[in-house]
Predict the structure.
Amino acid sequence: MTATTTAKAPQRKVARPRADALRNRERIVAAAREMFTEFGPEVPLDEIARRAGVGNATVYRNFPDRDALVREVVCSVMDRTSEAAELALAETGDAFEALERFVHTAADERISALCPMVQSTFDKNHPDLEAARERVEQTVNELMDRAKEAGQLRPDVAVGDLMIVVAQLSRPPAGTDCLVNDRFVHRHLQLFLDGLRAPARSVLPGTPVTVEDLRRPCTD
């Protein structure tokens, strides 16, 4: 009786990026985030490479064009914002204080500097951007709902109201220096947050602003 053997096909190993390659990518994204905030999305990629401490070829090996790098920076900031919201949502203490901490953290991410990039630099419907955006919206909405259920957040506001004010208040006014403006961001955000507390002292005109409202194109 002849024994038969079944030859197993060798399993293909998925190559993992080397640790130094991952570090270089992270340094490029961090440097790009800083420089986009300071100078806008048109900053030369050579300057980003210099600040990241890598060669130009390393930048282009990770990001074939400017749009790819901008998209990665935007998604990175949105992911960090989502993580801050998730940490706040996981807290078991005061719901409004958790919301406050999230708002101040979101402002520190300088998400306002990314708004013009999302509007003009690349495809707003790219799957990576959509996924990052949906994660932010869902988690912040849950955070706000919890504060409303606790009777601490006025009921006539929505996620769009919160995010647009965070973006506006953390964006330097025309003619001012970014670093000077940073001294006042958290002060002004706290004034806004105090106005969100329930019970409301006034009636807001219009209706709560949703994220869908923010996405609609402007019409005359």
Observations:
- Residues 1-7 have pLDDT under 50 and may be disordered.
- Residues 147 and 219 are 34 Å apart (CA to CA).
- The chain has ten helices and no strands.
